[in-house]
């Protein structure tokens, strides 16, 4: 009898959290992320990821927030994800996912650099990463970068190296007015409680000012699912489960990267 109660309360909690996400994100937003003062100013944002599918699996609430508010989003994917020899397919899948996520395809770039190949144990040179990202910033007039944090959600070394590449860039160009934000990695429990995690995220964000932390709720979780489904070569049962139960499908916590 007790377990029925437990399961029932979990279901209620799940549904209530989902309702909170859909209700909050459809009401006029009080979220101040990307706003500068009162008037609307279009930002040029660069999302830097390591592999095709990172954007749909981890960053879709952020992507949705940026594009639905009329900002310009560029995506730089630093590898074609060729660890299993499917790089060319995965690259195409990235473009299909970006079409679902409403990111203009000419603003999506994938690299296939010999020194930046997909894989555990492959160390990516931070100086090289900083140089490549700087090139993108200059050619598109980017004023804000979003990327992984130092743990990289899953702990994948390529994700972490991307973070340190961005940090290196920020350190090397201190005069620049580039703003950078990282996707906060949560602990394993929070990672897999789906929409229920938003209560922790909202609390976290409330304890910090909008200068350093934002919680972005996903306006269209079903779209994230659809975007991830475009990555057919990766769309196996455990990833379907991951996308349904991952809190990154429902909300993103972003923290400002401070470079001293
Ligand atoms: C890292 O990349 C930079 C710039 O491309 C290069 O000068 C440097 O030698 C590389 N370092 C290593 C350890 O490969």
Automatic annotation (TrEMBL):
InterPro entries the UniProt entry points to: GlcNAc_PI_deacetylase-related (IPR003737), LmbE-like_dom_sf (IPR024078)
UniProt protein name: N-acetylglucosaminylphosphatidylinositol deacetylase
Entry's family note: Belongs to the PIGL family.
Coiled-coil stretches noted in the UniProt entry, renumbered to this chain: none
The enzyme's E.C. designation: 3.5.1.89
Lineage: Eukaryota, Viridiplantae, Streptophyta, Embryophyta, Tracheophyta
Signal peptide: 1-19
Keywords, sorted A to Z: Signal
GO cellular component, one term: endoplasmic reticulum
Keyword Signal among record annotations: yes
Domain of life (superkingdom): Eukaryota
Gene3D superfamilies: LmbE-like (3.40.50.10320)
Gene Ontology molecular function terms on file: N-acetylglucosaminylphosphatidylinositol deacetylase activity
């Amino acid at each position: 009898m007790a377990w029925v109660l437990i399961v029932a309360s979990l279901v209620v909690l799940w549904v209530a959290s989902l309702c909170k996400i859909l209700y909050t994100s459809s009401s006029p937003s009080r979220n101040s992320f990307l706003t500068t003062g009162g008037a609307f100013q279009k930002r040029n944002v660069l999302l830097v990821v390591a592999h095709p599918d990172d954007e749909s699996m981890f960053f879709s609430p952020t992507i949705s927030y940026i594009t639905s508010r009329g900002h310009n989003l560029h995506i730089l994917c630093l590898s074609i994800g060729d660890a299993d020899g499917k790089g060319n397919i995965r690259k195409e899948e990235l473009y299909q996912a970006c079409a679902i996520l409403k990111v203009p395809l000419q603003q999506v770039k994938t690299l296939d650099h010999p020194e930046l190949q997909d894989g555990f144990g492959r160390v990516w040179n931070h100086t090289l990463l900083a140089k490549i990202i700087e090139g993108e910033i200059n050619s598109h007039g980017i004023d804000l970068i979003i990327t992984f944090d130092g743990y990289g959600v899953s702990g994948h070394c390529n994700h972490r190296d991307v973070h340190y590449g961005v940090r290196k860039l920020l350190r090397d160009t201190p005069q620049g007015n580039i703003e950078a934000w990282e996707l906060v990695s949560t602990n394993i429990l929070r990672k897999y409680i789906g929409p229920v995690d938003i209560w922790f995220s909202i609390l976290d964000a409330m304890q910090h000012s909008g200068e350093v932390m934002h919680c972005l709720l996903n306006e269209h979780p079903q779209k994230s699912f659809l975007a991830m489904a475009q990555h057919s070569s990766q769309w196996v049962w455990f990833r379907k489960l991951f996308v349904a139960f991952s809190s990154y499908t429902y909300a993103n916590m972003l923290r400002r990267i401070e470079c001293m």
